[in-house]
Write a structure and sequence with these properties.
With 120 residues, the protein is mostly helical. The protein has one domain. Helix content is 65%, strand content 7%.
């Protein structure tokens, strides 16, 4: 447990230590590509685990309407998330304009896109 605590402290302190000489330059398209590749891996793992679950369900039971609808829904969800994620170029979104939030007084305040670069 002490090693874990030391790791947490190091994880939190290393960025501050690395940035003390100046801000580290970063390339938005490179970051977007890395996240896209990770997302492809996650989708592949989802397809693999779904295939294994379908195989086990078919060996335990016969093919019926409920199982077919679950299979079709799962495939639809995976393809939908694929389309939603890759519909827009994330590199352009990371270096592009910020979202605007209209306050109750009517003025607009820029909000940086932190959570997801895929927002329209």
């Amino acid at each position: 447990m002490p090693a874990f605590g030391l790791g947490v402290v190091a994880e939190l302190l290393v960025p501050a230590w690395a940035e003390r000489a100046g801000i580290t330059p970063w390339h938005p398209h490179h970051i977007a590509e890395r996240y896209s590749l990770f997302y492809i891996i996650v989708l592949g793992e989802t397809v693999l685990s779904t295939t294994v679950a379908i195989q086990q369900a078919l060996t335990a039971h016969e093919l019926h309407a409920g199982l077919i609808s679950v299979i079709a829904g799962g495939v639809l969800i995976v393809f939908s998330t694929w389309w939603l994620y890759f519909f827009r170029d994330a590199g352009d979104a990371l270096e592009g304009p910020v979202l605007r939030h209209e306050s109750m007084s009517g003025d607009t305040t820029p909000l940086p896109v932190i959570c997801s670069p895929r927002l329209p």
